[in-house]
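Researcher: Structure prediction, please.
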Amino acid sequence: MSRQFTRSVLAALLISFTLVMVPDAASASSLKNEPESAKESALHDAMRKLWEDHIIWTRLFIISAAADLPDKAAATDRLLQNQVDIGNAIKPYYGEAAGNRGADRISRADQQRHLI
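Model: Predicted structure follows.
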């Protein structure tokens, strides 16, 4: 087995394990005593969609990289764009600097896992 393939499989397993360990959002929101505002609800829904997209694009990238498929560059570009989208989504709530830091941290985490 090639070293790149082994890394890709290990990264996929790590991501899968992490997803299993994440608590269900519905049970977490039921612990709050106060109702969500419309703004909180909108942020929650937007972030949930963006993180679902991140999971999908990370998975597609791993498959493309492991099999050296021709769509690897497109999957990489879309995964990187998703990281920017997540950063942009938090800017209205936490500011420009926090949004940029958030996108950068996600990108660095993926790069440290040798995904990109």
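Model: The mean pLDDT is 78.
Researcher: Thanks, that helps.
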